[in-house]
User: Fold Glucose-6-phosphate 1-dehydrogenase from Commensalibacter intestini.
Amino acid sequence: MEQPQTYSPFDFIIFGATGDLTTRKLLPALFYRYLDKQIPAETRIIGAARSPLTDEDFRGRARDGLNQFIQEADRNPEKIEEFLTKIHYVSLDGADPNGKWSSIEDLLNSKQANPVRIFYFATAPRLYGDICDNLSNKKLLTKDTRVVLEKPIGTSLETAQEINNRVGKHLPENHIFRIDHYLGKETVQNILALRFANPVFERLWSSDSIDFIEITAAETVGVGKRGGYYDGAGALRDMVQNHLLQVLCMVAMDPPISLSEDDLRNEKLKVLRSLKPMTEDMIKTDTVRGQYTTNEQNGEHIPGYLEELNKDSSNTETFVAIKAQINTSRWSGVPFYLRTGKRMAEKTSEIVIQFKKSAWSLFPTAPEPNRLHIRIQPDEGVSLSMQVKDPSKSHTSLRSTFIDIDFSPAFHIRYPDSYEGLLMDAVKGDPLLFIRRDEVDAAWKWIEPILDGWARGVVPLSQYKAGSWGPQEANELLAKEGHIWHEDMP
Ligand SMILES: NC(=O)C1=CN([C@@H]2O[C@H](COP(=O)(O)OP(=O)(O)OC[C@H]3O[C@@H](n4cnc5c(N)ncnc54)[C@H](OP(=O)(O)O)[C@@H]3O)[C@@H](O)[C@H]2O)C=CC1
Ligand SMILES: O=C1O[C@H](COP(=O)(O)O)[C@@H](O)[C@H](O)[C@H]1O
Assistant:
């Protein structure tokens, strides 16, 4: 039987400790790993932000956050209190060289300090360079230090390179962990197993058999309190440049020669570099941008983007659909449709692989093409649509049905949140599921012309009702090629 993973005690310092990500994701993820006995007794979690809070204030906020964001069944007050004793807080402006660095220095230079030190940057990316300069000047970057950088790295290729250069001045690449939490999702990792451990799929995995591929990440939430950040970013930077392109890499890459970090990342990089550059004409015909508007559903008022932002106008997209193409022999002629949006009809992230129709049919009606649905979330699983004989009709009648595996009940396990495994990988020093610098550059190189084209007004901002599947133009994007979005199970 596989032994549970053990870790040496570590210091986990979070810049941006009072923010949304820390409260909703990072502390709950660390708490779950505490329940799983992966957080040794001497480990310390040190929150840092500018707000003037005491340790007790911060623990109080952490307690409230845990009680809100962990599952009800796991809200064990005793365990929560034990976990909170590991938490400290320092009030510090990480960008200010003259800030109160002594408080963090005292903690990290004390007798209780642990050799492995993780600095997690859960702040705006423009601060990463300054924080690193200060950590370096204060000699807090030891040989066992790793930094975790949240996405998006920059807002363009140039700003990403600036950030990576500044962080890279102080740390070697293998100590820089650029996180993309979609790679922490079990079902995204499962794409490797599905493809490379099942020859039945890998042999069909090319333009010979596949007609088109859809990758959707739809959310029902709006921008909420993150409007300040989001309005300057938009869905293309927030979701496509990172999460959707990473998923696309996992679906489209050739088999890596091993599961070592560089072999895997080399293959992902090849996909990013093979993306067909978007010309102005392609941007016009192959991209859709939308923004949600107010709606009433079941007597409930769903606010529009502008209402949430409390603004009269904004040119920011909350929805994107793109037809991407990959210039390789494996994928030539196969469209990859990427779609993401806020305030859509359902919370769902999934990949749909539509296989080609058979050219010839034995049956009076042509069989429906097979479709493989990979459900990333929720209800992680896989289903394959199939044609069977319709048992209620004549022997020449077909009916569509599917083989479905729902992973959680199948394996009797709790599906961990994507941050849990990634945080512990950073502690372990395993960069396999983190983004290498050249991947960030390649992703921005493909995205940037779209951003520029949109800034020039090449594609109008369409509207879609909150709670819908996005603007009509997104359906037309596929309809032009005789394709449709598959929102439901086959
Ligand atoms: N929220 C999410 O769902 C996701 C967020 N991310 C990324 O994570 C990062 C953080 O996002 P989010 O938590 O939403 O942002 P928030 O705006 O909620 O939080 C920002 C945090 O940074 C702190 N901060 C700001 N300036 C400084 C400074 N100079 N020194 C120290 N701390 C500072 C703020 O606290 P104070 O004002 O007290 O200093 C606050 O704790 C961003 O890069 C975002 O793109 C990525 C994926 C998802
Ligand atoms: O990185 C981000 O991801 C979330 C969506 O993540 P998911 O795991 O819930 O699919 C998104 O809400 C946020 O805007 C974005 O920054």
In short: The longest strand covers residues 210-218. The chain has two domains: 10-150, 183-414+436-479.
